[in-house]
Amino acid sequence: MSAKREWTTRERITAALNHQESDRIALTDGPWGTTIARWRKEGLPEGESAHSYFKFDPMPGYGADSSFQFKHEVVEETDTYRIDRNANGTLHRNWKNQTSTPEMIDHLIKTPNDWEQHKHRLEWNRNRVNWDAAKNSRAAQEAGQWTCYSGVCGYDKTQGVIGSENLLIAMLEEPDWIAEVFMKWADMVVESASAMIAEGFVFDGAFLYDDMGYRNASLFSPALYRKLAKPAHAKAFGFFRERGLPVILHSCGCVKELIPDLLDAGLSCLQPLEVKAGMDLIELKGLYGDRLSFMGGIDVRKMADPNPAAIEEEVRTKVTCAKKGGGYIYHSDHSVPDNVSWQQYCRTIELVKQYGSYE
User: Fold this and answer.
1) What is the pLDDT, as a whole number, of residue 65?
2) Claim to verify: residue 192 and residue 78 sit in the same structural domain
3) Which domain holds residue 83?
4) Is 268 found in the same domain as 144?
5) What pLDDT sits at residue 1?
6) Three-state SS for 26?
7) How confident is the model at residue 114 (pLDDT cuts 50, 70, 90)?
């Protein structure tokens, strides 16, 4: 009997996003830096990445600088943290000895007047792209990798510029301004992707980022999403879909109430499906599996559980369900924290490969 053909990453992910089965589900994940440091002590060989060790499916992304292009400056530095002012004029603190989201301290742009004063800095220019990377995208695709345009948009991009509290208030009190801001990020996605494609970048799809969820609910109502964010998403998603390119959206937290509108806007795949926020992979597969692909949804708390039966039950039930008819890519339900041991994670991937095979 002839050996079973192993598909390339590009074929495997393309099949999943087209709701087709391949040789196995695609594998990818995102361990924390502190997790990698722990794994080095417990078995991950020096000089080898987790990506190569576990043979994750490469999804290289290429994007553009969508910032206000202010000059970066270090404002303060100690043994435990560093305070920077970034290219959007935002003052943030990064902790040196732990993996965490940067702490936003202050924002240059907080009001419609601030926006009017500085928005000219968001005009498209060629300095926003590393044009030498075009050849890298072609080489990656030729090597069988799944290449993508990568960028941040919508709510997530805006909260990083004006602050979460400012943004949520402005969505109610200054909706026209926020709709304009959201659309500007969509314009930048379209303008940069158009220029990149014209000058030799090759993409198999887009991987966009827009965190819109909190624990158990979205950060704003579906009605507000439809009014302010959906038109911008429809423009960005539509640009790629019109070119036959699927769109994966990373959106943390619970965003299940937004899924019907995300589908209507042109979404192909949702990631990462945070379990602790109420995102249930099996439920979502049953509701939307004929129209939407999924990436993620494997509970990292089960990976860290001292009882090995917990992660086996998690992978067996979810992967077996989600892989049917294609439409699923393995990923943790966000990123792998450092309470997951090397032995526990090796077992997780072993189980994913076992239950994720299309025999």
Assistant:
1) 98
2) no
3) 69-108
4) yes
5) 43
6) strand
7) very high
Q: For residues 214 and 277, give the distance between their C-alpha atoms in angstroms, rounded to a whole number.
A: 7
Q: Which pair of structure tokens corresponds to residue 122?
A: 């968001």
- The number of folded domains in the chain is 2
Element (H or E) spanning 46, and its range?
A: none
Same domain? 130 vs 77: no
What does DSSP assign to residue 110? -
- How far apart are alpha carbons 48 and 262 in whole angstroms? 38
Nearest to 39 by CA among 29, 50, 51: 50
Q: Which amino acid is at 221?
A: S
Residue type, 184: K
pTM of the model: 0.95
Between helices 154-162 and 175-198, what is the axis angle to 10°? 110
Strands 148-152 and 61-62: parallel
pLDDT at position 96 is: 82
Contacts of 123 (CB under 8 A, 6+ apart): none
Question: How many Cα neighbours within 13 Å face the side chain of 221?
Answer: 5
pLDDT value for 103: 86
299, pLDDT greater than 80: yes
